[in-house]
Amino acid sequence: SCSIKTNCYEFRNQFTKHFSPTLVNSIFLNQKMLLRFGRIMFELHKQLTCLYMTLLYAAVFIGSVELCSKSPHHYYRPYRMKSHILVLGEYQPGDLENSRSASGPIDTSDLVNHVPHRGLVKFDVNNTKIFFDKENAKWMTKTLRKRLLDLCQHIENQWPDKNVYIRVRDTWNPRKYQRIDGSIGTERHQNSTMDHFHWAGRGIDMSLVSEKFINRDIHPGKLAQLALYSAGFDWCIYKYVNYLHCSVKRDSAKSADWYGCFTNNATVYVEQTKKFVKMKNLKIGDKVLTLTQNGELRFSPIIGFFHRNYKETERYVEISTVNNSYSIEISPEHLIYRVSRSNFTYRTLNKITEREKTIKELFLHNKEVIFASSVVNGDFIFVTDNHMKLQIHKVDNVIKYVVKQGKIAPLTQEGTLLVNQIFVSCISSFQNENYALLALSPYFVVSKFWNGASNVLYYYTSFLIKIADLLFPNYFYKEV
Fold this sequence. Notes:
Elements: H1 2-16, H2 21-68, H3 78-81, E1 91-92, E2 121-122, E3 130-132, E4 139-140, H4 142-158, E5 164-170, H5 187-199, E6 203-210, H6 220-231, E7 235-237, E8 244-247, E9 267-270, E10 275-278, E11 287-291, E12 297-321, E13 327-330, E14 334-339, H7 352-365, E15 367-371, E16 380-384, E17 390-412, E18 416-419, E19 422-428, H8 433-449, H9 457-471, H10 473-476
Parallel strand pairs: 3-5
Antiparallel strand pairs: 1-7, 2-4, 5-6, 6-8, 7-8, 9-10, 11-12, 12-13, 12-17, 14-15, 14-19, 16-17, 18-19
């Protein structure tokens, strides 16, 4: 700035020799104002640049680090695999329950004073070996429900064909927020913290019970081992002789429940091999059969995976058509195509060309995209026959709760999939498929030119879900 001022004064002295002083003063007065305005704008630009960079750092980097802390590989790291039976008085991890290495902090905004509430879901799964002492205990967060279902499956695997059950004494409690009394780390402080996790629907008290089956491992210490190292609870304490207290982290985009998936044995038709391939054998770049928005069959490449874990078990909805000709196991929150019931009456068409034309028109004008949990007997879904022709089949049987191994959610360039010869969307959790595909459009463009784009898909979609959770909360807290 000093050099600029010096040059301006020298230029002014030379300019005065040829023009009147009044003209020179007016010109350079305006010049000073322009210089001052330029400095202000430059400082403002620097501050805005720092602000933008800070927001970008917080949204991308910090968000990614938070997501990594709860990634699907978290429960398969070596320190999580050192399984042991807890003894009375022991808690794991060896930190306070509300620490970030355990179940995380509790905020007053997490506390729930009434149900139904958008932050809690009701455990309404039938045919499970889980019993609740009271009705309030059926309300919990999505993450807690997911962990409880996983724990039930691991108990069935531990004692197959035995009458071993989980007795849930308490989860959510309708209590008001109270201040924690007592120093941090004391027993009174810990008891108050445990109560707060119950008020938020993130804590659970449970025990193992059995009928006509005696085994020395049926006690809270063994239950704690299965809850921590198999089901993935974030913190457990074996404090009471008769039951166990566990808790989980807050629901967020990193929760596996946000991602609709398929099982390891689900099949897709791959162009390279000209045959159906199991989902667990899929890889980036494989061209699979999809359905365009115009109702045309087309091969589209796999450009990424929202979620891919071959070891974990998941809750699925099993949908079967008449005579079990087509069947699919799909996450309850995954989107599937159905013929709209409002203005459609199924009739048998003799001419093949007329039938194909009618089915295509149904897909273009009378299809609707719904959660898989909303499919009921009598619905018509879109399938393909052995000759790769678009057809519709009537749903004959829907099983709301099936536990299978594998959680795989691929994304194609078209945004659709043919799974077990049934057409579904690649989108889950969000009710409006068009908005979700629009939000993913930058990734579709980048994936065409960058082979490594698939490595950031999980974090990109997690960031999108965080934003959508703020703008469209009703889309995410719908019970499915």
